Amino acid sequence: MSVKESKPVVHADRYAVVGNPVAHSKSPYIHAQFALQTGERVEYDRLLAPLDGFVQHVQAFHAAGGRGLNVTVPFKLEAHALAHKLSPRAAAAGAVNTLRFDADGIFGDNTDGFGLVRDIEVNLGVALEGARVLLLGAGGAARGVVLPMLERRPREITIVNRTAPKAHALIEQFAGAAGEFGCILSGGGPQDVDPKPYDVIVNATAGSLDAALPECDERAFGTGTLAYDMMYGAQPTVFMRHAQALGARAADGLGMLVEQAAESFFVWRGVRPEGAPVLAALRAQLAAQAA
Ligand code: ATR
Questions:
Q1: Annotated catalytic residue, options 4, 7, 76, 85
Q2: Which residue in 5, 15, 131, 264 has the fewest CB atoms around it within 10 Å?
């Protein structure tokens, strides 16, 4: 093409997901769909950082003009430490999954809990307001979703963990916020599960990674229960199959993945994409894999 014919070069703003491993990440696909949908000029890549090289990789990406990053395993705590300013939900989570490079420093946010809440309420149509919620697990994934769930004003949240003291620590951390939102926050070990059906049970344990079922009284699952596993795969997780066998409705974490991405996109661009069509496309891709 001659110089005369060439079109003006329009540079897209650069974003990426940084992790280790990161090759499997669906975020580049999701954000490419969001960019198409909204008309935002966004380019989104994968960034593999060595386990001891997170900060250097982030700084190099920023220096090369990058505008923001999603952060995944195992760097969410390092991202939290790196940010100059934190959103309240990132401070509460103690972890950051979204970095934005502002003129006055690095802003750290955490959109995971928002993604979970939006998937439950909007995509799955279950209101959290007034609901009885059981949260299984008390690690990083659980901690990240407590504040966004409290903000939806459930009647009660019971946090139960195999190692009870970790659940007690979370309950203590969020006691003030629970009071503010009129929610009864309690829990401890598996024996503290109420033997009556909950409205929503969220599996935030790492159990599904190795097909392990967290210990939980079967009477907690009823026909009106939504059993939500934060993990997802081509096949239903062992937790989902268990919940379905007990008569509950089960959902995996694919919608949470899409909705946390939509919220990150909003944090960066001030434009909110629609999660549902992208979720439907990803669901079809997973079904094709499973076939
Ligand atoms: P993540 O960031 O994924 O939350 P984490 O902080 O290591 O990872 O937390 C893992 C969570 O899964 C913990 O609540 C852990 O329970 P413990 O605190 O007792 O270790 C829980 N978990 C992992 N495997 C489990 C299993 N087989 N049964 C029940 N809980 C399990």
A1: 76
A2: 5
Tokens of 57: 């990789």
Which whole number is the average pLDDT over 194-215?
Answer: 94
Ligand 1 neighbours, Cβ below 6 Å, are 137-142, 161-163, 166, 205-207, 212, 214
Range of the domain at 205: 113-252
pLDDT of 5 > 60? The answer is no
State how many domains the chain has. 2
What does pTM read for this prediction?
0.95
Q: What is the mean pLDDT of residues 102-130?
A: 98
Show the DSSP H helices in the chain as ranges. Answer: 27-38, 54-63, 76-82, 88-93, 112-118, 140-150, 164-173, 175-180, 238-245, 254-269, 276-290
Ligand 1 center–CA 134 separation, angstroms = 15
Q: How many A from CA of 150 to the centre of ligand 1?
A: 21
Upstream peptide bond of 74 is cis (omega within 30 degrees of 0): yes
> For ligand 1, what atom is nearest to the CA of residue 163?
19
Neighbour order of strands in the sheet with 98-102: 42-48, 13-19, 68-71, 98-102, 105-109, 85-86
Please state, as a whole number, how many other Cβ atoms lie within 10 Å of the Cβ of residue 245: 11
Assess contact for 99 and 82: CB atoms under 8 A.
Answer: yes
Per-residue pLDDT, 243: 98
Question: Would you say residue 284 lies in a domain?
Answer: yes
Classify residue 40 as exposed, middle or buried by CB count within 10 Å of its CB (0-12, 13-18, 19+).
middle
Cα of 136 vs centre of ligand 1, distance in Å, is 9
State whether 149 and 270 are in the same domain: no
Report pLDDT for 114.
98
Q: What integer best gives the mean pLDDT of the chain?
A: 96
Structure tokens at 176: 């003030």
Q: Are residues 124 and 103 in the same domain?
A: no
26 in active site = no
Pocket test for ligand 1, best of 162, 216, 217 (most atoms within 8 A of CB): 162
